[in-house]
Amino acid sequence: MPEKPRPARQRQAKLDAKAKIKEQARLDKPVPGAGVHLNTTTIPEKNVLQTHGVAGKENLAAVAAAAMAAAKGVVKPADAADANEGPDAYPPPAKINVGNSPVYIPEKKLGKGGFGQVWLGRRVTLRKKDGVVLEGAQAPEVALKLEHKTSKGCTNGPPYEWHVYSQLGDSYGIPKVHYKGQQDDFYIMVMDLLGPSLWDVWNQQFQHLSETYAACVAVESLAILQALHNKGYVHGDVKPENFLLGSAGSGKEKKLFLVDLGLATKWKERGTHVRYDQRPDDFRGTVRYASVHAHLGRTTSRRDDLESLAYTLLFLLKGRLPWQGFQGANKGFQVCRKKMGTGSDLLCQRVNSAFQEFTDAVINLKFEEDPPYQKFMALFEPLLNTPERPLQVEVPSKVGQKRGRSQLEGPVEAETPVASKRIRTGQAAQQWITVHTRAQPMKQRYHYNVSTSRLLVHVQKGWEDGLFVTCVASCDDLWAIVMDAGTEYSQQIYKVHPNSFLPKEWIMEKWEEGFYITAVAGSDNNNSLVVMSKGARFNQQSYKVSDSFPYEWIKKKWKEGFFVTSLATSSQQWAVVMSRTSGFVEQAVELDFQYPSEGIHKRWDAGYRITACAATHDQAAFIMSRLRKPPDDETQETLRTTSFPTTHIKEKWDNSLYIMGLAYGKTVS
């Protein structure tokens, strides 16, 4: 990607430091987690959304072989990642004895996953008690979960999952860990042996479960998740493979359990909700069932487990979700876009209305919102009025009744009505996005629907009046420009380059003359408008053109001391301009397949302001920055309109709100 060279007197002094920064950036590259991990990976000239782990096809023979699944969903579905074959290939010890446990012989491998392998363990010595069923720590058969010390979850010692189980203690619907410890090269947990997963049951029932069965799953899953959430954790990978029934002959064959806490995270620390963030390269979970927020790299909260539960229920009912079948390097992008574009009415066609009401409610939960678990459960109660329920469920006797502490293992949160303000659903639209910032009264001018041939007339007149171009955008292959007197520019030039996004040679030539890119836009017919200025407080600049949003490259440049100063799109391509400047302290990205209203407001509350924005036909991106010298009045507003907002702009001017950002593309009305 082109980068303006430093002046000769600076270059040599910075070479060693730059090499160290690059090496650190390489070392800091995130390691993929379990499931399918999406990562924006830089390759020459283009960035492509990569999927780490190869998705395989459902293997019914493997499903049947794993009918005695234990404390890990062990059947690999179509969207799950391959486990680490290296550590899993090591055979377990011939006999296992950890943490003062009895001695167990690992008899049969039940399965493997992203966080280890699970074996059936048989107790070597057992005192028989006539007429007494031995269970728990005394059971003759247990599940042995082993993780090799070289596996990705054990590089710094015991698996993270150990810590989660220790923090949870006894939690409703979570299998019990009886012993844990290290033996030879393995970290081992001795756990309750469980039975088939909902994935297995779904296959045994010809890949379709009844509405009654799904309603039982819904109610019991909500109870399990509420108990887990009350402990301060979210599961992070809710799916059919991670819900297991009790083992045959245990008396718990109809009892549901939630397993695999390898991706569990805290949603609450010391009584306070964790802070919101978005890192578009940080995906955790399984592509098929992950929430949209997980796809977009947002901090996990309780709503994500519930959205994944909705997708799980609909999969069990219908046998397929609309976003299955995507392949290729940008699979995660395609799946997330499809999820965002599929409303609950289409997703829940031909199923009981309770499932649609639940789905519609959970996909609209806010980041910090307390889910109304009891009211969600009550939606499914009418479907449970059958002579015999296929699953053991705990149903409140009336709507809104709280469960006891013995069932939920934690404080009961206050509940809100099911209906809430919609934050995600709406009619997809292509709109103008204008960002208005409070400033001292100044002269500002705009032009829109300007052809390339007429552009010079407007720009030249502005220059003559002491105005400089500050924002540019394109709609229907015509240009919109904003000029104002609130800059420190001393000179300005621009170029419209046909069939090129962006004009590399011209930009590099002007860099040598002391100009820097201060505004840029692209049209759908691949023309580009680049504005370069003198007087901008930049001392080095770099840009990248990419077929997907180049977040990995942005992170790399952040580490090198650059900040995003301009953003543009041309059809589905992105152009990001980054500069060394003293004006910013920190930046963040809000990227969405709709307008990210909640994220923008969270950033505003944290002291960030929008400093650049752009949109394609699929996505909108906002660069949020913390300024080194914030103004006394940090008021900022955004406006979305179908046509260029001429009337609104004048109203904003009357309130000293001036345009500082302009884009046209994907939003939601």
TrEMBL record:
One of its GO terms (molecular function) is ATP binding. It holds the Pfam family Pkinase. Its EC number is 2.7.11.1. Residues 104-384 form the Protein kinase domain. Residues 396-417 are annotated as: Disordered. SUPFAM superfamilies: Protein kinase-like (PK-like). Belongs to the protein kinase superfamily. CK1 Ser/Thr protein kinase family. Casein kinase I subfamily. This is non-specific serine/threonine protein kinase. It comes from Chlamydomonas eustigma.
